[in-house]
Amino acid sequence: MRFLRASDTALLVEVEDPMEVTRLGAAWSEVPGVTELIPGAQTVLVRFDPSRFSDAQLVDALSTARTGAHSSVAGPEVSIPVRYDGEDLDEVADLLSVSVDTLIERHLNAQWRVAFCGFAPGFGYATCTDPLFDVPRRSSPRTRVPAGAVGLAGPFTSVYPRDSPGGWQLIGHTDAVMWDIDRDPPALVAPGTVITFEQQRPVAVVTSTPNTSGRTGELFDGLEDDPVASEVGGPASGSGPEVTVRETWRPDPVLASLRVIHPGIRALIQDGGRPGHAAMGVSGAGAADRTALSQANRAVGNLPTAAVLECTGAVHMEYRGLPGVAAVAGAQGTGELVSSDGTVRPILQGVPFAIDDGDELSLSHPTHGLRYVIAVRGGLLARPALGSVSSDTLAGLGPGPLEAGDCVVVGDPRHAPAVVEPLGITRDLPRSGETVDVMITLGPRDDWFTPEAVAALTAQEWLVGTRSDRVGLRLEGTVPLDRRIEGELPSEGTVTGAIQVPPDGQPVLFLPDHPLTGGYPVIGAVVAEHLDLVGQLPPGARIRFRLRPEENFGG
């Protein structure tokens, strides 16, 4: 094994035998202080609590646990029916110098085992011992691959769980539902699952119906002509607002709600996220600025990770229902609350304010930072996905982006656990055009880059591009980062804050909705204490990376 630093809270462990990935995952899940394991093609990303032990101590613990790993791990077995009618079937047969019939026969006769999941929830990378299957990805990825498409890439086969872009060679299609949030477990396959393919047979292993609404885990719309919505009244006493909610989720009673008048650039429901589901290909997601999440919730007396609104740009909301308490944290700008009688009150950062039926909350475009966090006592309610109501914009989990007319239900304030705590927050957040220092660690793949590229990472300033989002910041530098090692990197786990470098040499700094695994080398990663800062960087801001002193823990 080789141990590589992936961040100040994660190590990447290389192994020679891909089958050992599954065995080590089973052994290391019991190591105290290990918070999550993300299997890759030939690696295991180990996330850990740095307050429990150092990198060197973790290496010792993992090495010891490895000796107790079983020689094999028996996983569940799944049969997947396939119609071999993929667009690339003939081309793949030519690439492998076999007939189409031979390709199909060997795909059917092979026993496939899922080594890891990534790219999207329920997307399992399965390998087999048949040496035939080593297929290059398409030179030009498709912008849309349909759900159920069966593909090949490198030594792997997989089934796309949802419509998405993709560069795999498509050989067939299945009706099997690979991911269903209403199923337990939602993923049909997981690391260790043994897959056998059957030709042109009906699905027998899956009975639930996939969600095809386009807004997975959707909460509610305020549109009265919505054919799948139903009117839900307020409290039994007759007080409180009428709120239109999706029939898949009915709070009773509805005490209060926030109606979106203008959502700004993007308004999302976020909470502490959904860590612990990496084996199914699900990232942690959650608030981009967890400091702001905690501060806003503390100001209104909620638990630190209660659900809030995360808003980018200028927003306008109307409060409806019983009197409540709200607070704003995160990005800095001007805010005001206009009551139904026309009274105007200013909104201050971190200072709780009373809010009543008919009040309208307006926040200007931020002058500093990027994302506001709006908390209301009682928290925001939505239909949870894997224990969280966070909106994961890449995976399509949780409520979709809010639109004008949407109503967000507020929880019962009597269930809030703490007293209101006026914080009076002062944070030094950047504005567009300003430069901030961000501390990073090198690795795990800094050795894939030339010495000049490693030096350029910290020697120049990086502009935050306009195509940045919750998946990652697109960075632009005068000197691109040239690679020393060419070719594809087998897919491996990545962390929030990872600085991944595509072929053009312009990095992408991963934010909470990033993919769990990736095939581009990661040159470094932002340390945990600066992740909230990068989550607030607006387009036009500049980053100056600074190296954290490294300790030599060996590999």
TrEMBL record:
<dbReference type="GO" id="GO:0016740">
    <property type="term" value="F:transferase activity"/>
</dbReference>
<dbReference type="Pfam" id="PF02682">
    <property type="entry name" value="CT_C_D"/>
</dbReference>
<dbReference type="GO" id="GO:0016787">
    <property type="term" value="F:hydrolase activity"/>
</dbReference>
<keyword id="KW-0808">Transferase</keyword>
<protein>
    <submittedName>
        <fullName>Carboxyltransferase domain-containing protein</fullName>
    </submittedName>
</protein>
<dbReference type="GO" id="GO:0005524">
    <property type="term" value="F:ATP binding"/>
</dbReference>
<feature type="domain" description="Carboxyltransferase">
    <location>
        <begin position="1"/>
        <end position="189"/>
    </location>
</feature>
<keyword id="KW-0067">ATP-binding</keyword>
<dbReference type="InterPro" id="IPR003778">
    <property type="entry name" value="CT_A_B"/>
</dbReference>
<dbReference type="InterPro" id="IPR003833">
    <property type="entry name" value="CT_C_D"/>
</dbReference>
<feature type="domain" description="Carboxyltransferase">
    <location>
        <begin position="279"/>
        <end position="553"/>
    </location>
</feature>
<dbReference type="InterPro" id="IPR029000">
    <property type="entry name" value="Cyclophilin-like_dom_sf"/>
</dbReference>
<keyword id="KW-0378">Hydrolase</keyword>
<dbReference type="Pfam" id="PF02626">
    <property type="entry name" value="CT_A_B"/>
</dbReference>
<keyword id="KW-0547">Nucleotide-binding</keyword>
<dbReference type="InterPro" id="IPR052708">
    <property type="entry name" value="PxpC"/>
</dbReference>
